Amino acid sequence: MNTKHYLFILIALCLFSCGGKSHQSKKLETISINGNIRQVLNLSSFVDTIEFIPLETNNENLIGDVERIIYRNGKYYIRTTQGMLHGKLSIFDKTGKYLWGLNKIGNGPGEYPELKEFAITENGNITATSYRKIINYDSTGVFLSENKTDFLGFEFVYMDNNNYFFLNRYTIEYGNMLFSVMDNRGIIKKRLFKMSKLEANKSALVHDWRDLSLFKSTLYFMYPYGDTIYSIDNKDNIKRLYSIDFGDKSIPADLFDEKGDELALEKKTSKLEDYMHATAIGYADKYIYIGSYNKVFQGFITLYSKMNKHTLTAHKIVDDMFLKGNVIALKEKRLPHNMDGNDILWPLDPEYLINGYKHYMSYLSDAGREEFRKKYPELVRICTTLKEDDNPVILRIKVKDF
Questions:
Q1: How far is CA 41 from CA 36, 61, 324, in A?
Q2: Among 29, 120, 160, 350, which one has the highest count of C-beta atoms within 10 angstroms of its own C-beta?
Q3: What is the distance between the terminal CA atoms of the chain, rounded to a whole angstrom?
Q4: 262 domain-assigned
């Protein structure tokens, strides 16, 4: 073979070893988090508008921890758990009215021992995963088909054309490939994103809330204990886009090794003075959202402007727009973990609205209270009818330029 043929083969081998067509891009932009932390962040500094959506509460649909929200065709599909177990799917309309639920615990056809994850296809059908099982339902929850699979993934999204991108839980068992692309029968079409053995082991050490963010047919992702945001399009082109910098709160690279496990890492990190770890991302037209937490599980919201490179980060959010003075102290589980297009979907416990409303009203004059009721009648209705043990209220937040 001549020199051109050798060169072609060399390039092809390099691309194949990456598990996609390319990991390269222009120089990475850096999102600096620790250096931009504020103690508090006013709601008005990043919020354009908020729609408050109280989720109807009845004996059928009591919600525990909200793990996943997908908004599709005017409906909110919400996977919830009690603790980390007993996953079920509840469907609400756009106003929060309960429609129906998918809760089929069992071992028969269309049933599962544990609902792990779900996705919604173009026609509204539901694909759910359980332990070594993938199940398909129609848009009303009627069982269609199921298949057994040896694959064990833990987060996935539906892209298009019967392609489901699964983030491999134990990457080292799949040739150090981060993604397995499957169809709705559980048949693996291909694997993507080759990692080093060390990075593959790191990605298996923890289950983050949301490492995948689908936006306009492009998947944006990071992997557990990683510090880079990537993109992958529907032609498998992979790019490195952003680097996340926690400054002196970064977890030292030498804490990881190729044979480490979760217990070993937990023991090592316990000896650190402090650290920060990204646990959720969201990608929008004008900004990037990152949720992270520190050693004592304090939560931090970070918003990065793609236009002016401005970064907002805080541990506490102060409402200076509606229930003025109401403070939300963030914990790992209290962070937003889901988005719909350019909007952040944030489920909030009723007590924050109930107590915030009572506190704010106590400071207003009679005239001030009447003015507030006229300006925000729907918010007043929600705050005065909620009970503390009701289901969460979804805050649909439109983010303004900042």
A1: 11, 33, 13
A2: 350
A3: 57
A4: no
Residue in the structure block whose two tokens are 């557990």: 224
* Contact of 280 with 208, CB cutoff 8 Å: yes
* Cβ partners under 8 Å of residue 75, min gap 6: 91, 92, 93, 94, 99
Per-residue pLDDT of the chain (402 residues; tens, 9 = 90+): 554 444 444 433 343 344 555 555 467 899 999 888 988 999 999 999 999 999 999 988 888 889 899 999 999 999 988 655 578 899 999 999 999 999 888 889 999 888 889 999 999 999 999 888 999 999 999 999 999 987 766 799 999 999 999 998 888 888 999 999 999 999 999 999 999 998 888 888 777 889 999 999 999 999 888 899 999 998 999 999 999 999 999 999 888 888 778 788 889 999 999 999 999 999 999 999 999 999 999 999 999 999 999 999 999 999 999 999 999 999 998 899 999 999 999 999 999 999 999 999 999 999 999 999 999 999 999 999 999 999 999 999 999 999
Tokens 């990692």 appear where?
A: 195
Q: Characterise 203 by phi-psi region: left (phi > 0), alpha (psi -120 to 50), beta (else).
A: alpha
Structural domain contains residue 260: no
Report residue 355: phi and psi, to 5°: -70, -40
Distances in whole angstroms, Cα of residue 106 to Cα of each of 91, 112, 115, 254: 20, 5, 11, 44
179: domain range?
22-252+269-399
Cα–Cα–Cα angle for 61, 166, 151, rounded to 5 degrees: 95
**CATH code of the domain covering residue 90:** 2.120.10.30
CA distance 328 to 40: 9
Q: Measuring CA to CA, which residue among 219, 210, 208, 164 is closest to residue 69?
A: 210
User: Number of folded domains in the chain?
Assistant: 1
Structure tokens of 5?
Answer: 């043929």
Distance CA 192, CA 181 (A): 8
Per DSSP, 56 falls in state P
pTM (2 d.p.): 0.90
